[in-house]
Amino acid sequence: MVDITAIGEVLIDFTPAGLFEKGEQLFECNPGGAPANVVVVLSKLGRSTAIIGKIGEDQFGEYLTRVLRENGVDTKGLVKEKQANTTLAFVHLKEDGDRTFSFYRNPGADMLLGIDDIDLEQIKDTKIFHFGSVSMTHEPSASATLKACTQAKENGALISFDPNLRPALWKDLEQAKIKIKEGLALADIVKISEEELEFITGLTDLEEGTHQIQTQFKVKVILVTKAEKGCFVRYGSGSKWADVPGFKVQTVDTTGAGDAFLGGFLYQLLERGGSIDQIRDQDWIPIVRFANAVGALVTTQKGAIPAIPTYKEINKQIQSTGTDLFIESYRPQFHYSPPAMWMNDPNGMVYFEGEYHLLYQHHPESTVWGPMHWGHAVSKDLVNWETLPVAMSPDHNGAIFSGSAVVDWKDTSGFFEGGSGLVAIFTHADIYPDSDRPRQRQSLAYSKDKGRSWTFYTGNPILSDVEITDFRDPKVFWMEEAGVWVMVLACGDHIRFYRSANLKDWDFASEFGKSDGSHYGVWECPDLFELSIDGSNQKRWVLIVSIGDNPDYPEGSKTQYYIGSFDGWEFVNDNAPDTVLWLDEGRDNYAAVSWSDIPEEDGRRVIIGWMNNWRYANQAPTASWRGAATLPRVLSLTSRNGSVVLTQMPVQEIEQLRKESHSWSDVAVTPEVSFIHKTNEDLLEIEANIDIRSGDEVHIQLKSSGQTATIIGYDPVREWLFIDRSKSGLTDFNPSFACKHGARVVPENGGIKLRIWLDRSAVEVFANDGLVALTDQIFPDDPIDNVWISTESGRAELNSLHIHTLNSIYKPEGCTEQISRRVNV
Description:
The chain is about 15% helix and about 40% strand. It is mainly β. The strands form nine sheets. The protein has a nine-stranded mixed beta sheet with strand order 5-4-1-8-9-10-11-12-13, with helices on both faces. The chain is globular, with a radius of gyration of 30 Å.
């Protein structure tokens, strides 16, 4: 299936390029044509595209075909015409960068496109079909364009239309109006200028003019471009619209700006699943703002296609004038996410001089996994995060895979001239020479300025093993009792331990796990640390291991842990080899590792995970970013029924986000009388103590004003706590996402205690003081604004219930401080 197919003119733009010595005008040759410009934007942003049109059997036609192919556009539908040449357009620039056109098209090859030239099978599976009015000025191309468009619409494609009025190409402007209205009648999306809106409707008021078009032609989205002033967008039914400001740039040439804008808009639509009806109201502003940025950047260079920016350049433009982190509908508001692009495993977490460092796997040029860098954020409280520039980028040794960081307090490495500083230990990943076999080796980098810059060690790599392919993700810590650095390394189906005195030279110590625990996927991202049991002097070691996705298992990627002993040389499992202990029973907590060097007086072991799943991580329906972190959690050990198990709860600092609190006690819930609380907020913390001795299933439904709901439920008969996200909103981006899953939770004193944190695209559930945790992503159609508690039969008692609304860590412009208050009901 092709993401977008466009039909229409492919031509040469001759753009002013200065003057000869004697004053004559110079022109440079640039590829262009509105439909071609649109699809190249989408191709450069990673979408599959195709073009249908006609070019002359001449050098210009060859040049255009080559340029489109080089930009990733499928040109099978671009046919050659012997009887006419490729159309030429001479662009005349005004002082403000605006332009007029002179066309050499009498006839041009594009005008002679007939229905017999079009393979209608080519447009059968396209998601979006785009056309403009330039291909409707003459026959046979006018009839061919409308026929192809009708065919695409019948096949279920979204239809995008650009009136693109060029008066010089029409013999009769009344005929132009008739043809443009034929296009409007087919369109779902219309990109139109203010002048074109007035031409069609006779109205200059944007609200009235767009309302008239929407009412008359049933267009779903109307985008009125206003040059540097931005865009007016009308969407949905009724009176929904937004006026989105543009970007101030140094304009050189406005050729192709509108086409680039439309390409950026259609890209954002595709990134959100390609369905207009599923776009939430608050998403239209960031969608259009992205498109505005694309259009603005094209004007900073000459030509259209040569000036199309990269994704990285677009996001840099958006961020340079402030981001939309507060208004993005799925942007987590109290979980860390990168401002833009891809994020996966947490890396290099270390506390140093008052700052918690969170580094992470990052692709700074795409929203899907790619060449790995280390992104970087810091926090003083584990709640509010400042994103710093990329910490490390690939070098001659390869990409920067996962790893850890430590404070080298004693300068054992010799990097700090007797002082102390940060050392990162990570996996360099490339390919063995003259082979397609992956190569993974361990390397070092160090920082003398609190992590603001990093220097690669000249002796990299410091550890390799040609016998092991999956040889990665070092977690390093200083073991005071042994007086050595210990490295824990994932090696395919087991863990290896290494020792070093200086972080540079490592000796093998032992291995663990080839027959222990779960092996349904490759082992990754280990961690090892010691914890007290129930706060006593008795201690055990905890080994954490993440497991990659295996298509034969429904869970996707997941994280397990082991309890045992470690003497600096080897780890011994306390449990039987077939015992499997899961860190989190939800679908979306992976690669969790802990911070190093948290001060001893703090006393906490704090961990954070990647809130995603390799099963669908590259497909999640976010647009400018993908990937987020879980809440930081404090880990503890407790003894239950003769066994030692791990517990986890979010750090107490999260409570500073509480804005307003409502409390209830001794509330009875029956099938006839549910508990309903309308919050008008989608950031919540819920504390519930529920008596479940009636033996009936209890549901806590997090509902939106639409029909979607995420259900957190407990079945007392099965002693099963679960999350059901099968009707939680957008779920069809991957068949594994819509599911119901959970874990056993044994009641205590006839009840269960739940702590729930709800963010815009995440829910984290902790039962009985963190004995069980479930973390899931959700993508509601509308913001969640209701909490319903119900039973299917019988009766449940809410011994106590507290619902706290939470502040966002992103303060919108003009936002005032909110005062926390409590309401007892």
